[in-house]
Amino acid sequence: MTRNLYFSIPFYFEEDTIQLPCHGDYAYWLSLLNRFITRADRVEIHCWDGEEASLDDLFAHCANEPYEVIREPHMTRVQITLSPAFTNYLRTSSINEANHLKWFSLSLSREGSLLFSSEHWGTEFFIPHVREDDAEMIQREMPPDSIFHFHEPVSTEGD
Questions:
Q1: Cβ neighbours of residue 31 under 8 Å, at least 6 residues apart?
Q2: Using one digit for the tens of pLDDT, what is the confidence trace for 57-96?
């Protein structure tokens, strides 16, 4: 049986806008990224207006990669084809000098299908059709008091 997994970690707000993990460490996020990025061929990153430093850093590192920029009201979305160099950048440079995740959201996909979604600066997650070994690892490695919700995918057949 295939299930979807939504989970969140305990967080607090900084300056009433940015969600940060209560335990102050992103080791769990890097573990998730490392697990799912090997299956992906594309990443989509979202940054809010005002997060120009994160966008500038992102553009400096994806200049040699195929990418597309989608500007929306108050947000910029960047879709990038993953290469070994850009994958390494994400693995080593997603945390800024203030020890905050740089990206409001980061989604990994393969051949157009979502594999992993990290939202709200790495405090909320969605994994469609989660494998049992992935679910076990996630539940084991997430911070204490994380909330996990499994649900069956909604069928769109016959609509």
A1: 137, 141
A2: 999 998 888 999 999 999 999 999 999 999 999 999 999 9
Domain ranges in the chain? 28-124
Give this prediction's pTM.
Answer: 0.91
Comparing CA positions, the residue from 73, 76, 25 lying closest to residue 52 is 76
Contacts of 58 (CB under 8 A, 6+ apart): 45, 47, 78, 102
What is the DSSP code string of 11-76?
Answer: EEEETTTEEEETT---HHHHHHHHHHHTT-SEEEEEEETT-HHHHHHHHHHHTTS-EEEEEETTEE
Domain 28-124 falls in which CATH fold?
Answer: Alpha-Beta Plaits (3.30.70)
